[in-house]
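This section describes the prediction task in plain terms. A model, or a person checking by hand, is given the sequence of a single protein chain and must write out its three-dimensional structure as a string of tokens. No templates, partner chains or ligands are provided. The sample shown here is typical of the held-out split.
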Amino acid sequence: MSLADALPVIDNRTFDDIVAEAQTRIPNYTPEWTDFNPGDAGFALVELFAWMTELLIYRLNQVPELNYIKFLELIGIELEPAQPATAVLCFPVQANFALPTVAVPSGTQVAADPNDGGPPVVFQATASITALAMQLNSVQTFDGYAYTDLTADNAQIGTGFQPFGPLAAAGSALLLGFGPSSTSGALQPIPPGTNISLVFWPNSSGASPAPTACASATAVYPSATVTWQYWNGVSWQPLKVAKDETLALTRYGFVILKSPATGQLAADELGFATDMPRFWLRAYLTQSSYETPPSLLAIRANAVTATATQNVNGEVLGGSDGSANQTFTLTSTPVIDGSLVLQIDEGEGFVTWTEVEDFFGYGPNDQVYVLDPTSGVVTFGDGTNGQIPVANVSSAQTNIVAQTYQFGGGARSNVSAGMISTLMTSIPGIDSSNVSNPVAADGGTDEETVDAAKLRAPEVLNSQDRAVTCGDFELLARQAGPVARAKALPLFNPNFPGVEVPGSVTVIIVPNAASPTPRPSPGLLQTVCAYLDQRRLITTELYVMAPTYVPVAVAVAVLAATGADIAQVQQDVETAITTFLDPLVGGSDGQGWPFGGTIYYSDLFRTALVSDVQRVESLSITLNGTTAAPCADVPIPTGNLLTVSDVNVTVDSNSGAS
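The expected answer:
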């Protein structure tokens, strides 16, 4: 494809189009002018101006994408940089390791292969942890009367479990037992003052997280009081909590516990765990007023957050030759925003220069540079706008150095559960064959395209970073995090469904996740809440919630063309219908199925007419278990989306069909 073909067409009118348009306007402005022949002097002027206008349109259509980017920057619109995915990594200790703990340093790298033909994606730990030699191999709940063994439910991440039982009454407790990997293994004591890192995932696999109220996103109060304790062989004793992000086990987060400095955790057999002595910790409900008993997907120990980034230190970019507008390229991309520390030695030692968006407003003595994070190109000024780096004779090729920066990220870093498993650096005592991410990584995005920025620009200019209209709420919600779609419902309060509540606005968000039913995590709900809360009107009662998905099944019978591959036709029809109803890429415009959008029979009928399909013989739609009447449109509830439960395609082949 040539450059001319790749450029956007701003105005596609030709000379003939302009002349015809001018001719239609003549009777409105000069009705006495009736001679439109080419020989008429007045009409000759029309053709002359049309020719000149066509030349201007041609030149305008040659405006490159870089100009678009600069035009967008002039109105405060910048391309969103690529973002790295975040995951949780677990570091199990080798069986029968001699020491009770293993230090896992910050920056520990573990790689994943996305199986897309590209290089491995490297994740690195964002903090250091102390990994326990004892494994979390027993999970029980105590409801005040009896124990229930949850170990198998916790080991196999699936339907989830209730850590405090179905009632979650005061006096209930979640017990965590730490012991060797086998009954023959040595029992290693947990040293005093050891940080015990636990991560909790709420169960959102069949249900969406509860709507999050945004009246005050910084003041969040738990619905219960959880006290952490340890077993000393005689009784339960209080345990120091260094950090608890779980809001009484109702949302995703880490709990960092510190083993007692005095006294000792005693190994014992409790409840159903009678196969071996274990060290026991428990979360005890001293007060409970849960609206809904909490449900967890999994609990893991020796856990730490990791991001899909890598560090580069001391990379020599080259040497300045004293010319204007010099460029140098970093070897690793995309560069994480704000991570580059660039230093230049102009003869008096290395000095840190400042990254800026562009050179506008900077003088000849300002030590600034511009970075393109996607390509890694570093550009310096021309001596008028931005200083030119001085050439250094003593280090002619090495006086410009990237002292440190981070790179990585993109949508391909959203790898599935269990794929982050290759430990890049050996850590004595860590079982490298079992290091992994229990759940999928998320949050990774590619750099925003220019086309996407063009679509975003009018909304940004209208909203002016404040949420007043529904469009404002939807735009700002998409800016707050990895949100693919948002829908604002005015006068809707999730606590009073079916009742119009003045002043209430509920924003439904769909995350950018590869799933047939993408649901936001509680953390993303709170992130969007905090972002919108700063920009809403003080009189607005705001909620952010996950979408509700209504199951839809489609049964369709088609007639295939002569000689068509029946299996391929069946697959193509199924794919076309599934894609058309998809919450992220469905709908007539390919931007996702509309919230509460009616399923029009004619649209679905037309979708089934893929290549090699001569006609659709029958089509039925079943929504939430109810089959619609033949040829009838099917409305879905306001604000809801669809999830395709089944597409049953029957293909007939009529060799005599024409």
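For orientation: The chain has ten helices and 34 strands.
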